[in-house]
Amino acid sequence: MITSRQTRIRYLIVLMLFLASSFSYGDRVVLSIVGVALSKDLHLNALKLGYLLSAFSWAYVVMQLPAGSLLDRYGSKRVYGYSIVGWSICALAAGFVGYLPVAIAFGALFFLRLFSGAVQSPIFPGNGRIVAAWFPAAERGRASAIFNSSQYFALVFFGPLMGWLVTKRNWEACFWLGGVMSLLLSALWFRAVYSVKEHPRISQAEIEHIEVGGGLASMDSGTAKRASTLTWSGVKLLLSHRMLVGIYIGQYCITALTWFFLTWFPIYLSQARHMSMQKVGFLAALPAMCGVVGGILGGVVSDILLRKTKSATIARKTPIVAGMLCSLTMIGCNYTDSSTVVVALMALAFFGKGFGALGWTVISDVSPKNMIGLNGGLFNLIGNTAGITTPIIIGYIREKTGSFEMALVYVGFMALTAIISYLLIVGEIRRVEFTPEQLQGRAG
């Protein structure tokens, strides 16, 4: 029932996106926190650990296009909610892998991480889709920045908690705790999240505010099953657009930074800087907190620039370029022996990564109105290919060189490439509108 009083339900919705995304990233980061202890128990070298760290992304990437299509067809609430339940079950099961014979434990854990990646594939396309529906264009930067900052908050919250737990108990307990917490979250999700016009506590004034500002408030309204948007001709149509291709490349590079921080960064502090895992959990949280601040601040700055300049190009590109320049400073860690300086440089790099992580805001701005789920899925597919390549490449570098120096150079190069892509390929940022002839070709 729509109420007549003024409401701000969209802020509750973005809070739910932040919580769900934080738990999703928490599930991804647990393996890196317990990686040292787990490697000893399962007898894994650096390269084999790299493959295990990448397992999540193999299925996550493959499932992006189907996930986007499922979101467009069945709506965000249902698909997203079932995703939370699915990864919770995977986490609980992963805690029992330690009781299996070593010969099959690696394969079992690899499979569970694959399956967890598959069921989590709708999360970020769903985030972009929900923000496009619930927020006017002038508020999308902040909204997207809030849920995107979850990747850093996951380290802030789960890093110390899991670092303490793996030290005091064992690595299996970390998976069990994450699974139970995520199951509780799924119950809250189904109770709190609705489409815009079906929310029982929203006011007509808020609906009008969303729609007048460019929000797609009618998305997911009604219970009828919609047609699937997943066709290869549709994918080809999206890939034929130069601006979108530039955004996809930029997202791959930015996501490479994300996966360094989510996978090898705690291990880097432990192995290269000789810190205990309990200390790693707390020290990793400090740069991650800077990422949270940078992420939210980047969205705020972007929205301010949009209001002042009326240009999405200036408003979105400026924080992205500035943030990636800050991230380049992590290479400076190769030239110091001071743990304090390392943490400070990583804090600046984390801040820059957060400040420039506006890819989902850009996707909400530019996606064709009837292909938001599919375009979000394709965007996330290409971006999270870095989740496969980055852990393996860094594991290979670590195994061959015995150090992390070239690994940091590689991650810094990804930040530089993101800058080049946004400045030289993307061009003007605007919503894509395909002609009827192009769409007819997609349908055919």
Automatic annotation (TrEMBL):
Membrane topology qualifier: Multi-pass membrane protein
Transmembrane segments: 12-37, 49-67, 79-97, 145-167, 173-194, 243-262, 282-306, 318-335, 341-360, 372-394, 406-425
Pfam families in the record: MFS_1 (PF07690)
Major subcellular location class: membrane
Keyword Membrane: yes
Stored PROSITE patterns: MFS
Cell compartment(s), UniProt: Cell membrane
One MF annotation (Gene Ontology) recorded for this entry: transmembrane transporter activity
GO-annotated cellular components: plasma membrane
InterPro entries in the record: MFS (IPR011701), MFS_dom (IPR020846), MFS_Na/Anion_cotransporter (IPR050382), MFS_trans_sf (IPR036259), Sugar_P_transporter (IPR000849)
Residue ranges occupied by any Major facilitator superfamily (MFS) profile domain in the UniProt entry: 13-430
Domain of life assignment: Bacteria
Keyword Transmembrane helix appears in the UniProt entry: yes
UniProt entry keywords in alphabetical sequence: Cell membrane, Membrane, Transmembrane, Transmembrane helix
PANTHER family for the chain: FI19708P1-RELATED, SOLUTE CARRIER FAMILY 17
Name listed for the protein in its UniProt record: MFS transporter, ACS family, glucarate transporter
